[in-house]
Amino acid sequence: MAPDLPFKLNNPSLFHTEALINGNWVPSASKQTFEVQDPGTSNTWATAPDCTPADTDSAVQAAYAAFTTFRTVSPRTRAQCLLKWDSLIRANRDDLATIVTYETGKPLAESQAELDYALGFTWWFAGEAERIQGSVQVPAAPGRRVFTVKQPIGVAVALVPWNFPIAMILRKAGAALAAGCTMIVKPSPETPFSVLALGHLAMEAGFAPGVFSVLPTSLDGTPALSESLCRHPLVKKVTFTGSTRVGKLVAKICADGLKKCTLELGGNCPFLVFADADLEQAATALLALKWRHAGQACITANRVYVQKEVYGAFTEILAEKTRALVVGHGAEKTTTMGPVTTERSLDKAAAQVKDARELGGKVVMGGHSLYGQDKYPGFFFEPTIITGAKSSMLIAREETFAPVMALFQFDTEEECVKEANDTSMGLASYFFTKNVDRTWRLLENLEAGMIGMNTGNSSAAETPFGGIKESGYGKESGKDVAVNEYLITKTGTLTLS
Ligand code: NAD
């Protein structure tokens, strides 16, 4: 029976509370379920199946059986299925966005923007399916020809975070299905329903049973299910997006089976503002980047470095614009900032603010959890700006993942680049300047996989996404590289008679 939801869907058939295995909606083998909370109210609003390692083999066997056929399906047919999936997701955009808002807390407009961004991936990878090509070479040895063919690697497992539950799946599944792989997704415990809804639409789009499966699990059940999926001998590829800590655990498990692995990990991204920058432009870009999903994006600006001459003026612009934010439940039309997604994020933010205060930082605005106040029954944290930030503070060493902005002051470009690179992470870096020479130097000298130059928005389906250092390895999205993560290259050598 469909649960009594706190919102109305135009297409109620999208909402599933069972796992998707082999094209069937099934309870978990244990028959256990777990509760999912609305971060905006802290109330439980639905329960999802708590899958365990007892569900792994049936899901992987079904994905493998589907793979033996799907790998031979023509690229054009795979592209057509992806385009059908794309059009169905597009048609159900607002319903999917509503589910995302109740799972993550983000304002409805942001959930809709996530859908629009995510649809770039289904569209892009449908095109990529037909552009997978091998090569023919005439080698030095006489009378020989050498060919390479690209083939799908096999069953892929996707372990994904809660912060962009639709976009993270479509970025992975788009590439995997374009390549001819089948995929099993283990969503985050916070966001099972949006991923199950994508599964519903994948079936409707005509993907055969087992091509796309979804196994939700609880927070407690996560390590065991993730490990059993990654260790299954028929799984040949693991794609993980999440924290660096868990990414390292997943990499070790994959190393045991020598499995190909993509890791999209933590950020701690620097954002540099030079005195010659257009301050209005820089502030608008920074606030859009930083306050999106209440600071819970891997590519958000974690450390903001502002040149001494404009530090005061820039802080004022940021504070004034931030005061205009309306904090509230994501489903309220007036809300421009929602809660953080989990209660544990509140504790981390509070600890970072306390540490910054103790080390001499000044809290210009905000600084407190609002959770529990009459108007704020959910996991709300005040939009917070801290000046006088220092590299010794927690806020500089760890990702914040909350609406807390730390402003560091710098004197010279050299000093700033040194501080910006003083982190084990290397996902994205941003800078604002009008100086062309400096633009080139920073592009070369900042240690990150993605560099935003006079922009805070550098991610799109057609551009490679991924980090360096402890932000992981492998690329998602972008021409050639992303689909390649799901392919093997086979070399054929022919002697001509
Ligand atoms: P997380 O590492 O806790 O979880 C990520 C995934 O791993 C989830 O599916 C989770 O259920 C699973 N998981 C958790 N513990 C596990 C364990 N012990 N063994 C196996 N699997 C486990 O991360 P999160 O809190 O969901 O997301 C926030 C993190 O993700 C941040 O560090 C953020 O920067 C990062 N992130 C990175 C990108 C990127 O593209 N680089 C994108 C989004 C988020």
UniProtKB/TrEMBL annotation:
One of its GO terms (biological process) is gamma-aminobutyric acid catabolic process. InterPro entries: Ald_DH/histidinol_DH, Ald_DH_C, Ald_DH_N, Aldehyde_DH_dom, Aldehyde_DH_Superfamily. Pfam families: Aldedh. Gene3D superfamilies: Aldehyde Dehydrogenase, Chain A, domain 1, Aldehyde Dehydrogenase, Chain A, domain 2. Keywords: Oxidoreductase. GO terms for cellular component: cytoplasm. One of its GO terms (molecular function) is succinate-semialdehyde dehydrogenase (NAD+) activity. It comes from the Eukaryota. Pathway: Amino-acid degradation; 4-aminobutanoate degradation. Residues 25-491 form the Aldehyde dehydrogenase domain. Belongs to the aldehyde dehydrogenase family. This is Aldehyde dehydrogenase domain-containing protein. It comes from Salinomyces thailandicus.
